[in-house]
Amino acid sequence: xxxxxxxxxxxxxxxxxxxxxxxxxxxxxxxxxxxxxxxxxxxxxxxxxxxxxxxxxxxxxxxxxxxxxxxxxxxxxxxxxxxxxxxxxxxxxxxxxxxxxxxxxxxxxxxxxxxxxxxxxxxxxxxxxxxxxxxxxxxxxxxxxxxxxxxxxxxxxxxxxxxxxxxxxxxxxxxxxxxxxxxxxxxxxxxxxxxxxxxxxxxxxxxxxxxxxxxxxxxxxxxxxxxxxxxxxxxxxxxxxxxxxxxxxxxxxxxxxxxxxxxxxxxxxxxxxxxxxxxxxxxxxxxxxxxxxxxxxxxxxxxxxxxxxxxxxxxxxxxxxxxxxxxxxxxxxxxxxxxxxxxxxxxxxxxxxxxxxxxxxxxxxxxxxxxxxxxxxxxxxxxxxxxxxxxxxxxxxxxxxxxxxxxxxxxxxxxxxxxxxxxxxxxxxxxxxxxxxxxxxxxxxxxxxxxxxxxxxxxxxxxxxxxxxxxxxxxxxxxxxxxxxxxxxxxxxx
Length: 494
Fold this sequence. Notes:
Blueprint: E1 3-6, E2 11-14, H1 17-32, H2 42-60, H3 76-84, H4 87-104, E3 106-112, E4 117-121, E5 133-135, H5 143-163, H6 167-194, E6 198-199, E7 203-204, H7 217-244, H8 252-268, H9 272-300, H10 304-321, H11 326-341, H12 347-361, H13 372-380, H14 384-387, E8 388-392, E9 396-400, H15 409-434, H16 437-440, H17 444-460, H18 470-493
Parallel strand pairs: 3-5
Antiparallel strand pairs: 1-2, 3-4, 6-7, 8-9
Helix pairs in contact: 1-2, 1-5, 1-6, 1-18, 2-5, 4-5, 4-15, 5-18, 6-7, 6-8, 6-18, 7-8, 7-9, 7-17, 7-18, 8-9, 8-10, 9-17, 12-13, 12-15
């Protein structure tokens, strides 16, 4: 189906079987992230693990010569060398080994009674001078479960980076990811108006503030923001191509419409962080798109695209306005105003403070991957409004407030992984930032939008527990490296 052309001999060369195999695993995994219920259930997490590891193994395992194709872009030794020369591989490998050490060296154990549970200190097998964790059930959360989620994300990202060497396969994967995300956003809108309390109408959910396939609306909104970022980068990619080919239309108009639909779904999710940061991303994209359009207008002198661009913006805006419940939006805005006036009383501010207190006691190595929910109650008690869930004028405060996540992923990373473990994660993000130069080589606007998108995502995780979702974690690293790979191949072919 997809074919490349050898410019010297003018001979069509088919894409290798290896690359098709890598694409199959990667496509399944990326699409599944939109429908895996956040990756919290055992079977969804294990399917993400299967897809990520399958992508990685398909890219580096030795195959017969015929499977590597005839375009010389794939090779048993060549792919292995690509892997070994990638800083992302070595940093992620060190981080995964670090978590395994934590898992093998528990210093605390969860003990369950008839109605409650508590933690007890135990002698760590490797000693107190090594990273440690909390021994707990895998089905709930422990270091091994956290390790599986990280392996899923890093294996997918590395498999894509090593095994995808043609632009058409990269575009196929990106379109599959974007289309799946847009469909999830549209299904979320339909689900909202149906009034169902079940995830996708089939899975029971205790949290009433769900969105799409995600049990938490902040994670659903964050996922749609990620899809919007990738859609915007595809827009700039196809826009540049259409200009080079002297075409007035192209797939970038479809990307533009996708972004408006995604933005409407983000706003309807009513996540405060999602609305603010999603709006900033869309406004920045619109500014860059309009800027590029004005530049092209002065160069070409045609007003046809100007009219189309204006019609698309007006149509998209009117379409989205039909779905908005202004009363709900105003209610969320009033909540934001009250929080800004007294941030110290806000529960997420207090949970961040308590998590920071937790991190200080084991600052170097952390409490262990997945240990937050077991250790946090010790520090939660110091904040009365954080400890109790309800308040009554007669009874006073009552009812225990349960926190599984800190609502601030970066501080939670510090509490669980310590300075050493968190340094590995920061390095991975630095690598993603450094890779932005590959986008700048093709399009300055695309590079700027990519960096702005990374900043929005990083900021979002200061106010929500986005990275705690395995589905989002896998989708983030997989799509980020995939879109960088696309622009790298585009620059290489030019």
